[in-house]
Amino acid sequence: MRVRSQKLETVTKNVNMSISDNLNKIKSSLPPHVTLVAVSKTKPVEDLMEAYNAGQRIFGENKIQEMTEKWEAMPKDIEWHMIGHVQTNKVKYMAPYVSLIHGVDSLRLLKEINKHAKKNDRVINCLLQMHIAEEETKFGMDEQELSDLLLSEEFAQMQNIKVTGLMGMATFTDNEAQIKKEFTHLKTIFDRLQQKQSTVNCQPSILSMGMSGDYLIAIDCGSTMVRIGSSIFGSRNY
Ligand SMILES: *Cc1c(COP(=O)(O)O)cnc(C)c1O
Questions:
Q1: 139 Cα: distance to centroid of ligand 1 (angstroms)
Q2: Reduced to 3 states, what is the DSSP secondary structure of residue 30?
Q3: Ligand 1 geometric centre to CA of 226 (Å)
Q4: Binding site membership of 167 for ligand 1 (Cβ less than 6 Å)
Q5: What is the pLDDT of residue 236?
Q6: Which among 14, 21, 160, 163 is placed 20 to 30 Å from 190, CA to CA?
Q7: Which fold has domain 3-233?
């Protein structure tokens, strides 16, 4: 099963531009203050290695087990970012090595991350995920929930996590005005957070927004970190 899907990937890859071509093209379009997370979910290690050999060192995955397998198989100077929804019972598998968790949207999850970070004697950087899209299905908090979380006594006690910024996803639509409105909203929340909050475990400097279809809009709206998958690795066959 696994072998067959890898073969398919190889075929798709050969008819398109190479991964390193795609990567270089995207990198040259990013301003220097914007960090590129190469989203490699569902892709085989050979594809990730092609990006690695072209200089990419930050990879994003959305399943903890898949990310852990790739972490084990690949060079150790890679930063692994968890960009998907995190199940609390799986935090322990990534706690030893994960660099940044983008999708934290509850105090309960943050507590779990803090617990496992402590067991591993490290501080894990986290982004709080905000709900900015119209769709009901996307995860994330509103501004009130964000504020309640950050002002809570429990949060103040957490010594093994650090909130380093916010993450959000715009509505999946062709309507650029709508995408722009949602990203601008997130930027406003981020600016307010930066103005009022700088404590030991909350030092917001990262605004993670923008994917293959909307990253240029996101950068215009103030993104400092883009998460790009299909424009680098080609489309995914789930
Ligand atoms: C898959 C995914 C991406 C990348 O999507 P592309 O459209 O392939 O660039 C970015 N962010 C999150 C949270 C994702 O799940």
A1: 14
A2: coil
A3: 9
A4: no
A5: 87
A6: 160
A7: TIM Barrel (3.20.20)
